[in-house]
Amino acid sequence: MGRTVVVLGGGISGLAAGYHLSRAPCAPKVVLVEGSERLGGWIRSVRGPGGAVFELGPRGIRPAGAPGARTLLLVSELGLDSEVLPVRGDHPAAQNRFLYVGGALHALPSGLRGLFRPSPPFSKPLFWAGLRELTTPRGKDPDETVHSFAQRRLGPEVASLAMDSLCRGVFAGNSRELSVRSCFPSLFQAEQSHRSVLLGLLLGAASSGHSPRLDSALIRQARAEHWSQWSLRGGLETLPQALNTYLTSRGVSVLRGQPVCGLGLLPGGRWKVSLGDGSLEADHVISAVPASVLSKLLPAQAAPLAHALSAITAVSVVVVNLQYRGARLPVQVMLGGSWLQTLEARGGLLSRELFQQQAQQAAATQLGLKEPPSHCLVHLHKNCIPQYTLGHWQKLEAATQFLASQRLPLTLAGASYEGVAVNDCIESGRRAAARVLGSEPNS
């Protein structure tokens, strides 16, 4: 009898893991278990009254790097090429970046000329920050906060204006708490390998051309047209829906509305996966649920692992979608993150009205949309973005070492570990499947 692999979680990471398992030449029996009634996790698209697509979660995917190319390859394999909506390099949305500081929007400098001119909100041309970076010695610590790293290498202005905004935008987090080693591994590695981030990134980009490149018509198009990001015609949820259709066609059992209550070890090293109304047995489990959720499911024998995983926390984000008459695109505003926790801790009242009011205020002051919106959606996503705080790498190392020493047939995937972007999640699912199938070492 063949092996059975149970995948916990039907978000994009679990779906990707199931996809790659089911495509193997000697595919195991795969069962995917999702606690809610829908698949796709935080990726969710809905149509508004006028036919506009509102994204309740991520609204675009970047094609850059190997993970970006792998996602495009997946899109092609699922037959979705004709559904792709790219933002090409020559589009204003790809060329213009803004920082909202001191009550005004400031365009970030672009091109070489921009580096040598003073451009608000920065008091000096960014060239000087670059010069400082090239002459700053390498840091000695095994990890550092993003703010401390940026302040040391690029100066206080870049740290407090640019890197702080980047951490809010990507992680909904605080740059003074997040780890540079885990949140921006390419910056950390560049300094470690080349003493300078700028030199490291330049030399890294030059050497990456020699690695075997993933190739497909869609990947070639994305490179030729310098896509900054892309979406799908019916919304990003089209991707998890297509994965679900594919899995079902390959004989994968997809169980919805089945929260996992616990994991137990049976004699012989197999798992017993307890569900609300029954149980499954598995030779191997891939967990694509949040680390803190998994920590509560583990048996007593895995207490050290549960301890490491419970320390990986996440923040909540409110997504407000606004549609305005006369504005060509819906406006998406994200609120909350680590600041929402502060508000909650102070006993602040979190209401839909408050969030809608804040979003409308932002659209009015920053985009000049003074009229009330014709349509509005408010969604609070509880604990949706994991926070890789200082020392996150040690939690991962503790988890990896425990799994290896105990030879537990458990593989971790998902946003809790090595990247929160959609590409990172898909890649974590692919790697988890590869480890289960024996083509990569377990971790």
Describe the structure.
This protein has 443 residues and is of the alpha/beta class. The protein has 18 helices and 17 strands. The protein has helices at residues 12-22, 65-77, 92-95, 111-116, 126-135, 146-154, 156-171, 180-183, 185-194, 197-207, 217-224, 238-249, 291-297, 303-310, 338-345, 352-367, 392-406, 422-436; strands at residues 4-8, 29-33, 45-47, 53-55, 84-87, 98-101, 104-107, 229-232, 253-255, 260-265, 271-275, 278-282, 284-287, 314-323, 331-336, 375-386, 410-412. The strands form 6 sheets. The chain has a 5-stranded parallel beta sheet, covered by helices on one side. The chain has a 3-stranded antiparallel beta sheet with strand order 10-11-12, with no helix packed on it. Helix 1 (12-22) links the parallel strand 1 (4-8) and strand 2 (29-33). The radius of gyration is 23 Å and the shape is globular.
Cα Rg? 23 Å
What share of the residues lie within helices? Answer: 40-55%
Give the DSSP E fraction (strand runs of 2 or more residues).
15-25%
Q: List low-confidence stretches.
A: none
Strand order of the largest sheet: 9-2-1-13-17
What is the count of helical runs? 18
Span from first to last CA?
Answer: 26 Å
Number of beta-strand segments? 17
